[in-house]
Amino acid sequence: MSKRTSQLLILGTFLAAGLTLSVACNTPSKTTQAGGDLGSRTYVPVGEWDKYYAFLSGGQSGGVYVYGLPSGRLIRSIPVYEPRAGYGYANVPGTESYERLAASGPMWGDTHHPILSETGGDYDGKRLWINDKANSRIARVDLSTFETKAIVKIPNLQATHGIAVISPDTSYIIANGEFRAEIPAGSVDVDSYSSVMAFLDPMTLETRFEVLMPGNCDIADSSKDGRWAFTTMYNLEGAVTVEGMIQREEDGIGAVDIHAAEAAMERGEFTVIDGVKVIDPSATTEKVVYVIPVPKNPHGCDVTPDGKYVMGTGKLSPTVSIIDISKIDQVENLRDAIAGQPDVGLGPLHTTFDGRGNAYTSLFVDSQIVKWNIEKAIAGDPTYIVDRVDIHYNVGHTQATLAETMHPTGEYLLSLNKLSKDQYLPVGPTMPEAQELIDISGHKMTLLSSFPAEPEPHDAVFMLATDLAPNVIQTEEFAINAVPEDGSRVERVGPNEVHVYMTAIRSKYGLNEFTVKQGDKVTITLTNIETIRDMSHGFAIEDYGINMALDPGQTREVTFIADKPGTHWYYCTWFCSALHLEMRGRMLVEAGG
Ligand code: RUQ
Ligand code: CUA
Ligand code: CA
């Protein structure tokens, strides 16, 4: 057995066992950082804003968490695939957000990778997309309101995992189907299995085309010139069992030539499957897919800010493979596109950048972030490792500020740790995930602080507050169906159908009461006619399972059957004023119908 193979086997065991290695105890950790004045480096005085927005995915919580950095303050969460009564999001049948989510699939999701819209290779502060691995969906969030605006299920694809914006101008969103499955859907024939990379319209999320991929697709990124879409592949074996997926010593980084794929589309080299144009790369005139061989089951796929290299991060190999993007379509043997393959440590998962020529790789097994110099590693200079910092514990993703853009700020790095174990007050057998903030502005890294998160952030992206805060709207524009100040009324629109129009403003609804008959189909259109930021109102009806939340200026609608006779108070669910408790009225449902 070669040294490398035995190393890999040990690694495999480590990856499985790494989670159970450390002690669980109910005493504080011994890992406290040397104090100094670290506190002041993350302290944000009352009334001042953080320098960065941080968008963390929510895993099986189905949404996105928005934190401020460096403080680590949770500012809000954005519900995407899960109902959230607090924001009146998808929690009541008959409301727009509910109907949109329900039409796309189940009322929960598994979000891993938030990505941000770009113009000219930098964040433009307009939109965010987030995957749902469990139900093969993707969603778009509008950053002017921090609200989910579109959700679609992607055809022919199982387990939307890696997603990426095609730089520099968001020409597509790509979505990787991680699980190989039959195409078209509906059979159990393993021979018809394939993985898929889908190219989506960024706004409508409609699939413009798909490319069948050898092996499977995992994590995604793009080159900075719009030419290449990249993915890691850990199952070139095409296996359906763990044992099978680690058979070979090599897997790959897949590179899809977007221009060649578009040309194939124009030549009609596609098959329509489930309404989508699907390219089989073995049947195109021009080469569309390149697979660069890299060691065993790679995971992270990250393009350097200068667009020169794509890094495949080892997982079962202690290395990062540095691929020279300019060589992919130039070399005879794709191994010659690999510029370097430095050893970085055990269980490397993801790599991020500071824009000063350094890479930072998360080491799941070693529980470390390792900083290394890219050009030194390529040159074979043995001093390429710059620094290592211990994290707590078992880091998955790591992301440095603006590292996905062409202009990283190289200021902070977040270590998104899978386990916190002894780091926080015990709250039961399951502990929160630990996010650790590291200052990377100097030669050495400094671990600054740690904050817990609800289950369970996978990845994060950051935006400078100065790039986003000005784009956030203060109040909603009154919509076409907005109820004007004097427009509150009840209209019977059919023998069993009533439409109620109402306004809300501190501290009164436009109607103190309205009467319907038992069995009526009732539609309530409600407008919050406030014109200043943060004056939200809510609208809940007792025993009817209804709650809506309305931003200032916003109109929302709900339709339901008034099946329970009697008096049902409706009331405001946002504490809006001193008379908030009095902000209520009665729905009177006359028995019998
Ligand atoms: S994966 S720990 Cu879903 Cu982002 Cu790498
Ligand atoms: Cu309106 Cu409380
Ligand atoms: Ca493999």
Compute the gyration radius: what is it? Answer: 26 Å
Average pLDDT: 94
Small molecules (ligands, ions, cofactors) in the structure: (dicuprio-$l^{3}-sulfanyl)-sulfanyl-copper, dinuclear copper ion, calcium ion
CATH H-level name of the domain at 489-590... which superfamily?
Cupredoxins -  blue copper proteins
Q: Helix share of residues? A: under 10%
Q: What is the CA-CA span between the terminal residues?
A: 81 Å
CATH architecture of the domain at 489-590: Sandwich
* Percentage of β-strand residues: 35-45%
**CATH class label of the domain at 489-590:** Mainly Beta
Number of helices: 7
Helical/strand content category: mainly beta
Strand order of the largest sheet: 8-9-10-11-16-15
Shape assignment: globular
Low-confidence stretches: 1-11, 17-25
The total count of strands amounts to 40
**Strand count, sense and closure of the main sheet?**
6 strands, mixed
Q: What is CATH's topology name of the domain at 489-590? A: Immunoglobulin-like
